[in-house]
Design a protein that fits this description.
This protein has 236 residues and is of the alpha/beta class. Strands 3-2-1-4-5-6-7 form a seven-stranded parallel β-sheet, with helices on both faces. Belongs to the short-chain dehydrogenases/reductases (SDR) family.
Amino acid sequence: MKGKVALITGGSSGIGYGIAEALLKNGVNVGITGRNKERIEEAANRLKDAGEGEVLAITADVSDLDAQQDAVKQVTEKWGSLDYFVANAGVGHFANIEELSVEQWHETIDTNLTGVFYSIKASVEALKKTKGYFITISSLAGTNFFEGGSAYNASKFGLTGFTQAIMLDLRQAGIRVSTIMPGSVATHFNDHQPSDKDAWKIQIEDIGEMVVGLFALNARTLPSKIEVRPSQPPSK
C-alpha cells in the first residue's frame, strides 16, 4: 500500500479522520477535504506525523461538482495518480417530517447522496487508470428506518442502493466499489460530544482498520456491502 494515493471527503474529524490516519500509517499519501478551511488545515497538521505517507488539506464542498473535480486534480497533480477514494462526508438533520425544513432536507440529500454522485463523477477516470477502489460510508440507517429520520434515512437508503449499482457499473473497468454501513460510532456527529461513556461504540480507528483491510484484499474478491455494529451495546 506504501506510495498509493487516497482522497477522503469529510476528513477533518470523525470517521474520515480515522481512515486518513490508518492509511497514513500504511504509507499512503492522503488528501483530505472539508468545507471549513481552518478545520481541514488543522486536521492535516495533526495528521502529518501519523505515518510515512504525506497529507494534503483541500477545502472543498462535496455538493459542488467543480470543487470535487478540483480536489481530484490537486491530488493527481501532487502525487501523479489516484488509487483510493473514500466518500465519507455526511450531515444529519433529525426531526419529525412536520418540523423538518426544506433547507435541512436539501442539505442532507445534497451532501449525503448527490455529493457521492459528484465524487464518483469527478474521480472515475483517474480510478480507471489505477484500477482503484471507491468506498462510500453509508449507515445502518441505510436499511433501518426510524422516527425523525426521514431526510437521513432517504439519503442513506439512496446511498446504499447507489453504491451497489455503481459497483456493477464499474467492476468490469477494474474499479472495486464497496459501501460500509456503521452503526453507533464515537464521533461528534449531530453535535454529540464523545466521552468515556462511548467506549462501547465503534471507534474511528476501527473503521480505519477496516478500510485498510479492504484495500489490502486480493483484487479478485469484493466485499460489496459491509454492515458493522458495536459487538456489545448497553442493555436496554
